[in-house]
Amino acid sequence: MEHSAISRRNLVKLAGLGAVASTTAALAGGTLAQEQTAAAETPVDPGEATTHKFDMTIEETRLSVARGFDTNVWAYNGQVPGPLIRVRQGDTIEANVTNNTTGTHTIHWHGIHQKGTWRNDGAPGINGLAIDSGGANETYRFTANRPGSLWYHCHVEVPNHVGVRGMWGPLIVDPIDPLPIEKEVTKDAILMFSGWNSEVADDFFAKEDPTGGLNYFSINGKSFPYNQPIRVREGDVLRLRLFAASVPVSFHLHGHDMLVTHRDGLPVPAPYYADTVHVAMGQRVDVIVRMDNPGRWPAHDHDDGHLSNNGNAPGGLFTVVEYEEVGRDDPWYLWARKKYDPDFYFVDSMKRGHGLITQSGFRAARLEK
Ligand SMILES: [Cu+2]
Question: How far is the CA of 229 from the centre of ligand 1 (A)?
């Protein structure tokens, strides 16, 4: 596809202007871009690919989203977001999924094309069956030929299961030949945005579509201020992978412009700088930001309807980018004494290589029966 080849070359040129430090890097990028086009469109050498076999479960649990708000969730491996699945382009995934809940579920691998494996797509009644409640299991096997920020989610009664039951997690497929700007990234963060409905919190089956009454909003399952800051140092190259899992967002970062590099995991034809980025439902947008402005900076959805916890503001889809250089000792800083979890945005998990990477910090409480 010539269009794609041109697009990728333009991307490298533009990244070179704004974001790549040296001419050498930009020139080298020209060659890389052509190679990458070939890599994305031809089968990957099977000799290099590996198969990742892992077990997944779906558990009936209770998630604390905000102070005073817990909700029933169906949690992949007992956690919300679900565990990070990270592989290299061309690798094969074999996921054995056991459903320990009272509902039926699937896993849809959003962004995977399932070439020759369409029965593994996870759409019940269309290309397969749902996994029965009470301990049934199903093995999904497919090759991750399509690179980028993908995700996985249930495909049964989506407005309930994905909308307000936490049935989603990140699936990162590393491109064989990343763009030059991607190689400069020092911190790789994942932000999954979702909404919740307290009216249906205690009953999994209260409503088929509870998305009309969303009154809590969270990043990686926690509302501000119960979520976490994003800590950086001057000189960091921060990549934010923005996932609109169950609410659309207009993501705004103060004090910086963000280079929009990928949409739905694919390089955009012409990367551009923006201070506010719209992420439509289901979409993923990757931005890369040079951290060159020490301070404390809000990073938040600009949709005011998502900035409260059941009407109490501030709350919802809001966090703070904290530069280490400026410290946290202002007595008025509301996160001055915050207990810090360095993996809340998967930054540590993204340094752990490939496979299924679980996180105890996201584990939801086992539900009393
Ligand atoms: Cu489900």
Answer: 30
> Do 282 and 154 have their domain in common?
no
Report the C-alpha gap between 224 and 310 in whole angstroms. 12
Q: If you measure from the C-alpha of residue 119 to the centroid of ligand 1, how many angstroms do you get, rounded to a whole number?
A: 17
Q: What is the pLDDT of residues 330-353, one digit of tens each?
A: 999 999 999 999 999 999 999 999
Do 133 and 27 lie in one domain? The reply is no
93, 144 contact by CB (below 8 A) = yes
How far apart are the C-alpha atoms of 134 and 101, rounded to whole Å?
A: 6
Say what the pTM is.
Answer: 0.87
C-alpha to C-alpha distance for 350 and 345, rounded to whole angstroms: 9
CA of 11 to the centre of ligand 1 (A): 38
Domain span including residue 22: 2-39
Dist. CA 156 → ligand 1 center (Å): 5
**Cβ–Cβ under 8 Å, residues 77 and 358:** yes
Q: 151 with 201, same domain?
A: no
For the chain, what is the domain count? 3
Answer whether residue 96 is part of any domain: yes
Task: Determine the pLDDT at residue 367.
Answer: 78
47 band by pLDDT with thresholds 50, 70 and 90: low
